[in-house]
């Protein structure tokens, strides 16, 4: 996903914010592949899901984290 105002392709919190705002299905696939390989992305996604106004996207991110990590990251 090409993130607005970002020069790298890493899944930072800003990149996750961009995904929540305007991510397309192929962006979510790319995110899911990265998420399952990197625990920090999962933690950042959980943080962003708690602080983002796009609740549908936030919930999708929480579902993906739960799918890959279960309750190991402090999910309720």
**SSE series:** HHHH
* Helix content class: 55-70%
Overall radius of gyration: 11 Å
State mean pLDDT (0 to 100 scale): 87
Low-confidence stretches: none
| Helix count, DSSP H or I runs of 4 or more residues | 4
- The portion of residues forming beta strands comes to under 5%
List keywords for this structure.
76 residues; mainly alpha; globular; 67% helix
Description:
The chain is mostly helical and 76 residues long. Helix 2 (25-37) packs across helix 3 (39-51) and helix 3 (39-51) runs antiparallel to helix 4. The model has no long low-confidence stretch (mean pLDDT 87). It has helices at 13-22, 25-37, 39-51, 55-69. 25% of the residues are buried. It has a domain at 19-69. Helix content is 67%, strand content 0%.
Give a brief outline of the structure:
With 76 residues, the protein is mainly alpha-helical. The protein has four helices and no strands. The chain is globular, with a radius of gyration of 11 Å.
Task: Show the helix and strand layout.
Blueprint: H1 13-22, H2 25-37, H3 39-51, H4 55-69
Helix pairs in contact: 2-3, 3-4
